[in-house]
Amino acid sequence: GQNIDQPTEMTATEGAIVQINCTYQTSGFNGLFWYQQHAGEAPTFLSYNVLDGLEEKGRFSSFLSRSKGYSYLLLKELQMKDSASYLCAVMDSNYQLIWGAGTKLIIKP
Amino acid sequence: NAGVTQTPKFRVLKTGQSMTLLCAQDMNHEYMYWYRQDPGMGLRLIHYSVGEGTTAKGEVPDGYNVSRLKKQNFLLGLESAAPSQTSVYFCASSPGREGEKLFFGSGTQLSVL
What we know:
The structure holds two protein chains of two kinds.
Chain A: E1 3-5, E2 9-13, E3 18-25, E4 32-37, E5 44-49, E6 53-57, E7 60-65, E8 70-75, E9 84-91, E10 97-99, E11 103-108
Parallel strand pairs in A: 2-11
Antiparallel strand pairs in A: 1-3, 3-8, 4-5, 4-9, 6-7, 7-8, 9-10, 9-11
Chain B: E1 4-7, E2 10-13, E3 19-25, E4 31-37, E5 44-49, E6 56-57, E7 64-67, E8 73-78, E9 87-94, E10 103-104, E11 108-112
Parallel strand pairs in B: 2-11
Antiparallel strand pairs in B: 1-3, 3-8, 4-5, 4-9, 5-6, 7-8, 9-10, 9-11
């Protein structure tokens, strides 16, 4: 079966750096997405990786290793507004998105 | 710039009742999707559409029907609601499929008693 694994919850301190990991086992691979979802709101797009390596976008970076079935989202200079759930999703060979259950990130002052 | 508009925001049904959720997008996107989100689980695809007049089943289609009569609208129907359909429902759209991000509506919290 297809599976996306990410930690259920993480806690970090304002101003610090946090890395949220995502491992996947899917039927084929056509890209990996990260979305941010604040409580009670809709998911919003953060990043897309289809090739190995690091994609940087401001305070957020996303890394992909296709051979290891692994990605991480790196958040720098954490702010209180970064408290949210972070969803990892992989597009399989049929171009269907397989979603992880999300990682709830709690930022403490 | 409305994006994806989803109505209603909240709804309470009794078991056996029917309802329709409306999704509208003003970005001229070809693809539209209906997802449900339950605690501790990833988003699950109910139905999707690759263009006006087309629909296809997703991962969890049973108990739901959809229609895409106009490109900008995608309707989700529950003919006979069951408590297992209590969930948060999200509509989404995208211009294409490969490598394209999804734009989500604000969600509908549905409770079936």
